[in-house]
Amino acid sequence: MPASAAHRSASSAAARLSIGQVLSALRDEFPDLAHSKLHYLESEGLISPERTAAGYRKYTREDVERLLFVLRAQRDRFWPLKVIKEHLLEHGLESEVTSIASRPGPTAAVQPVRLDRRGLARRAAVEEDFLEELEQYGMLSEGLENYGSAELEIVTSARELADVGLHPRHLVMLRTSAEREAHMIRSVAKPRDRPGDSAARGEAEDFARDLGESMISLHGAVFRTKLRDS
Q1: Tens digit of pLDDT for each residue in 126-135?
Q2: What CATH number should be reported for the domain whose range is 113-166?
Q3: Which of 48, 62, 69, 103 has the lowest tally of Cβ within 10 angstroms?
Q4: Membrane-spanning residues where (predicted)?
């Protein structure tokens, strides 16, 4: 084999990551990402890593970029996998999640962000002691190094409510209700998560996500009717 061809072959092999290396590379942005999720996305045709002769998965740079697109579309837009797959078939990776036209759904307008604590306070126009108050009443998780769209929305909405006298201590009932709804959804999704079956575990995660979107829609519709009828 010519030296140049051998070099290209070695470089190509080096560019391919194992599943563990992919998880490590994405850990900062997706700390909960697991083997099961990647296996499930592969079984659904969203990613297609190469296989070595021994059967090990190897991910190219394009595989990782496609994976990031899928994960961000789920996290920041709450898109179901069917919608993501349709978009990828139609547009590929030509557009970032942030530039995709909004689709129907209560979370369709959420824009992805990644902020440190000071950046979160600045974007939400609050002091850091307001973040501490939200943490005190369980509205914001403690100990996070980075904050995303959901946390920014929580802090911004809580600030707007505080401006009219509804402070974090008044929102405990809302937090408790959300916890109960999340528990209910996890209970329904749990039977789909079969021990030792990575694809089933990933399916259960996405099933819970889709149920959560339906719960958000229902909650918003019921809330609007109650406001109308009051």
Answers
A1: 999 999 999 9
A2: 1.10.1660.10
A3: 62
A4: none
Spatial separation of the C-alpha atoms in residues 178 and 216, rounded to whole Å = 10
What is the rounded average pLDDT of the residues 146-153? 88
Question: What is the spatial distance between Cα 162 and Cα 105, in angstroms, rounded to a whole number?
Answer: 27
> Which secondary-structure segment (H or E) carries 94?
none
In this prediction, residue 58 has a pLDDT band, given cuts at 50, 70 and 90, of: very high
Indicate the domain borders of the chain: 15-99, 113-166
- Write 58-61 long-range contacts (CB < 8 A, 24+): 58/16, 58/17, 58/18, 59/16, 59/17, 59/18, 59/19, 59/21, 59/22, 60/15, 60/16, 61/15
CA distance 36 to 203: 9
- What is the rounded CA–CA span in Å between residue 142 and residue 19? 29
Domain 15-99 has CATH 1.10.760.10: no
Give tens-digit pLDDT for 66-119: 999 999 888 777 777 888 888 888 888 765 554 443 444 444 444 567 889 999
pTM (whole model) above 0.90: no
